[in-house]
Amino acid sequence: MEALLPSKSSLSRLKIAPALTLSPLFSHSLRLKPAHRPSFAALAIQNPEKKLEESESPAPAPTFFQDQKVAAADDESFGEVDKIIGSRALEGGTGMEYLIEWKDGHEPSWVPSDFIAKDVVAEYETPWWTAAKKADEAALRGLIEAKDGRDVDAVDGDGRTALLFVAGLGSEPCVRLLAEAGANLNHRDNSGGFTALHMAAGYVKPGVVKLLVELGADSEVEDDRRRTPLDLAKEILKVTPKGNPMQFARRLGLEAVVRELEAVVYEYAEVEEILEKRGKGNNLEYLVRWKDGGENEWVKAAFVGEDLIGDFEAGLEYAVAEEVVAKRVGNEGKMEYLVRWTDIEDATWEPEENVDPDLIREFEESSQQGQEANGQSQGRPRSDDNGSL
């Protein structure tokens, strides 16, 4: 299986700028440049049959100073930069812009990254992306706590955020840290439409998948090929060779990912009845009818109630109970209830375990109220015809 490279080293090959050692006295200039974007090399999940590989994703340049109304000078220099004091991703994750503090005293202004000297951007961004691509929790925490106006949803050339990287690397502490800092859990990148859940599923990180779901990530977001994270995991699992010792751990990981995501899909769905079954062992599935009227669906046995499976295997018929009308102690000393059904003419005596607890509770409350009313009626003094007691 070569769809996704599982090793941390391969994912961390995403382009990392070299570390910079700049003197605090170094003077930066904002240099105007031609309106084009550089190419960015990055790993992307291409499809389940191909390896992740480096690809270029050039994007159109944003409008220069669109909302700043700043006129550029005729020469190369516009102004002298003191430092970057904030960042934000452009709409749709197509690029970045930075809040520049100027040395000449002008008010800070937002400038698209294409029009800022690369060394200025690199000095600000390199620590962030290095920490993200190494899943360095301590470094990320330090940068977040620095409160330097940094956007935790900053994007690289492929529209990927730090959350996508740490999710693909399987770092649960980093995922939690970024989520608590306000990172968008459902951000889609621009090189496939992948979310953090897609990355965790594709790189076989079941622990991160579970955590993202618990944090509120939407498991139904689709990539550019209309695949949910569950679809992606199943697709990869399908083409991962069976019986190959080298792929055994990978298949186990993918199966764990699938279980986590299927649990989300079926968590709040209520089964009305089981219609059929197929397969055996880990592949055992049941065709279920949903109470909400949804289309009948094949569901793994692990996600169907044991009581429903037991009844189905015992060949019991399903019916909808309307109310409990009486109770008695059965032959074995167990409580039984007389149940009236919506689709069966005659009421039947059923053991307590076969009766909806809510219906039993309603019956007991109704019986108690009836007894209290009857007791009051029997104990009330009666008056004679003259109105005297």
Tell me what you see in this structure.
The protein folds into 3 domains: 187 residues, Ankyrin repeat-containing domain (Serine Threonine Protein Phosphatase 5, Tetratricopeptide repeat), CATH 1.25.40.20; 43 residues, OB fold (Dihydrolipoamide Acetyltransferase, E2P) (Beta Barrel), CATH 2.40.50.40; 55 residues, OB fold (Dihydrolipoamide Acetyltransferase, E2P) (Beta Barrel). α2 packs across α3. It is an alpha+beta fold and 389 residues long. A hairpin with a 6-residue loop joins β8 and β9. The N terminus and C terminus are likely disordered. It is built from 11 helices and 12 strands.
Can I get a quick summary?
The chain is 32% helix and 19% strand. The protein has 389 residues and is an alpha+beta fold. The chain folds into three domains: 81-267, Serine Threonine Protein Phosphatase 5, Tetratricopeptide repeat; 268-310, OB fold (Dihydrolipoamide Acetyltransferase, E2P); 319-373, OB fold (Dihydrolipoamide Acetyltransferase, E2P) (Beta Barrel).
Q: What would you give as the CATH superfamily of the largest domain?
A: Ankyrin repeat-containing domain
Low-pLDDT stretches: 1-77, 381-389
**Total count of domains:** 3
Beta-strand residue fraction: 15-25%
Following the backbone from N to C, one meets helices and strands in this order, namely: HEEEEEEHHHHHHHHEEEHEEEH
- The CATH class label of the largest domain is Mainly Alpha
